Amino acid sequence: VEVLGEGAEQLEETLERRYTEYTDTLARHGLDRPVWVTETSTSSAPDSVVSGASSEALQARHVVIRLVVFAAMGAEKVFWHGYRETHPDNKFHECNLRDASTGDPKPAHATLALLVDKIGHFDRVETIRHDRVHLYRFTNPDGSKVLVGWCTSPGAMDLSEHIEGSEVIVTHIVEARGGSPLVEAVDSKKVPLGESPVFVE
After folding, report:
1. Pairing of the two strands 167-172 and 145-151
2. Is the dihedral angle over the CA atoms 195, 1, 119, 83 positive or is it negative?
């Protein structure tokens, strides 16, 4: 878990740098082993020691960004830390997916369930863009393809060359308690992308 708090772009760079440090270490020792990311998370606390200024909405975004980036880097498995709440004095306070006092699911919980539903058992992942726009294509066991994308500057993007059909289904993540994913049909040449990741099919 990294100290962040300065936006998604730094998060992605940090994740990739740390992942590469580990794989480089394995390579130096001649080890070819699958990589499991056993702990990664973002706190939803507004003043987290680990994550900096955060929120439940930001935590939900980071569920997708963290898991997708690590998958694209080659991680075989990625685990979110944690499910239950830690003590307020613990630096990982509010990294959990459920409210400590009520047990209610936070937006990150619903977003993780959405991610598992869309790409939880993928066969292959490809990085399509990696600049101000982050775009990844996942191929599932049934051959279906799902794009996952976000960008630092909100706007509409032409994704027609990356996915079949003139019309696509865009599923937005959950960023508010009690919410459900917004699903909309849009022109494949005008897919809305912003800081919050979306699934495009």
Report:
1. unpaired
2. negative
Question: Model-level pTM?
Answer: 0.90
Lookup: tokens for 84: 């239950």
Angle at 192 between CA 162 and CA 134, to 5 degrees: 55
Closest by alpha carbon to 60, among 100, 15, 8, 13? 8
Are 50 and 92 in contact, with CB atoms under 8 Å apart? Answer: yes
- Tell me, what's the pLDDT at 140? 97
| pLDDT, tens digit, 9 for 90 and up, residues 93-109 | 889 998 877 889 999 99
Which of 78, 66, 76 has the alpha carbon at shortest distance from 136? 66
CA dist list (Å): 22 to 9, 17, 32, 170:
21, 9, 12, 34
| Pure H helices in the chain | 8-28, 56-73, 107-119
Cα–Cα distance for residue pair 95/89, rounded to 1 Å: 13
* pLDDT of residue 78 exceeding 70: yes
